[in-house]
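The instructor's notes for this session suggest beginning with a concrete chain rather than abstract definitions. Hand out the sequence below and ask the class to guess, before any prediction is shown, which regions might be ordered.
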Amino acid sequence: MSETAVVILDDLEARLLARRLGARVMGTVGVLIRGKRLGLIPAVGPLLSALNEAQFHLSPELIAKALQLAGEQ
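After discussion, reveal the predicted structure:
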């Protein structure tokens, strides 16, 4: 696997297995934060809200941390 390749996974068991196999792992929220830092999206807050409304499991702690990392809190 390329050293720059990243596996995008949200399932905890899959993430643990991928890491054991030596893969770099990033979740959906991490992709959003990276997108904002690269100037690809203007804000993560509305996207996190949309994911929450679509029944994507996001804990309040994860949302708060994501907003902090994205500079939106």
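Then share the key points. The first strand starts at residue 6 and ends at 8. The chain has a mean pLDDT of 94.
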